[in-house]
Amino acid sequence: MTTTSPAKKPGGARIAVQRFGTFLSGMIMPNIAAFIAWGFITMLFIPAGFFGANSPFGWHWAPVAEILGGGGDAALIQWPGAMTALTATEDGATYQGYVGLVSVMITYLLPLLIANTGGRIVYGARGGVVATIAVMGVIVGTNIPMFLGAMIMGPLAAWITKQMDKLWDGKIRPGFEMLVNNFSAGILGMVLAIVGFFAFGPVFLGISAVLGSIVAFLVQFNLLPILSVIVEPAKVLFLNNAINHGVFTPLGIEQAADTGKSILFLIEANPGPGLGLLLAFTFFGVGAAKASAPGAIIIQFLGGIHEIYFPYALAKPMTILALIAGGASGVATNMIFQGGLAFPAAPGSIIAVTVAAIGAGPANLLVVYLSVVVAAVVTFLVAGVILRASRKRDAEAEGDSFAAAIDQTAANKGKESSALGALRTRAAGTTGSGTTETADRDVDAALGGLGGATATKQLNNIVFACDAGMGSSAMGASVLRNKIKKAGIDGVTVTNQAIANLDGSADLVITQNQLTDRAKAQSPDSVHVSVDNFMNSPRYDEVVEMVRAQHGSK
Known about the structure:
Strand order of the largest sheet: 4-3-5-6
Order of helices and strands: HHHHEEHHHHHHHHHHHHHHHHEHEEHEH
Distance between the termini: 28 Å
């Protein structure tokens, strides 16, 4: 028997935007590796790339760069079998040039991956297939990379497929299921691809043109830094995903395809403002916030988990002004000196930013570094003034305010995370008043159910599950995996997945308490344990002991 605390069901516009942003992020984040691969290929083999004809280092790798980067004259190079297309020179002459990887990946591969992921989120593998077919029509019906179309048409096609299947659910004669399922999906995919070509394609072109003109207006009149007035407060409230993945990423990819880089990738991902805020709390903060800030810097700046600094801003809301000032300064620096990233930096770590910036050349990397430093310094100075001005009052009022700010951050996100859990533990350890009872209030009963299940169910496959299956669940899985390894237990796998990808094969599923009901519905035959803190739950030791007892480890 497992128990979970009843999940709150908040409403309102903020939650709606938050969920929409999470959905968009769920389509983009699992495919970041593909974006990185495309970014590296672009960085290396386009004419201005490391090995291109106009290499800034003089490292021209002919004819490989002309084949993989595209544009090489097939009649001169004569590489057999590679795809070619009619290519125009600057003077209007045409020749058969190699298509290469760069343009094909950004035009077809990346949008189709996004469409398939969005379709799977809505309706599993079947939804992903129909979504991919439908978005192919949108792609061919436009002349720009159709990321926006993929993020809209993909989930829509999967939803239509789901509604179609409901029409004859339970009405198909035995033996005809495969015939009906395959033909219905194929015919619907064909129809949606045609509709996408003639109807949705022009619509998405119009939407992209409008969004692009807004960004162009802001750039032309040097107004791009004012976006920080929206982005920085939105980050603290976990509303940034809708803006970042819904607008900045699609437009940024189009810009990067044309110019090799885009400033839009750095508006939200710049780690400078968070670094500056945490440094300010390190030097001028009080109590638990001051003591925990240095450790948070490592997680935020190197690990790229920006949410770690949100409680600090909520503990002192005036410091959001410092984040706005720092963010705007970083954007202005990139705007003035033409800095940008070749592909999205995810997570927003200085390491990921470095890799995404170097592709546009060493000079661009220096500009990006400068934007990070400027953003951090400005945030530090403004936040420092704010913190020093109220330091005495803050010291007198110090108590549960920082812990309350951490709780507020978790509430804003809609769920706890391992980073926030670790921060709460460090804060509790500093003040001496913290307790882990609340963080693990659901685990005692859950482990009671686990104990009852051990007699009949061998626990060989343990899965940590969260929304995206990439961030907090990966950290939790790593913690338990290390504990099991140190206990000398063999034959047990500990992995992490998105809840939507649970297939019922897990023996034990560990989730944050707000997500347990969803996990149970996805994997009903598994034993479920719900916790509030993936990172450092003391109840992991009880799980290890039960697994040890099952496997007879000493």
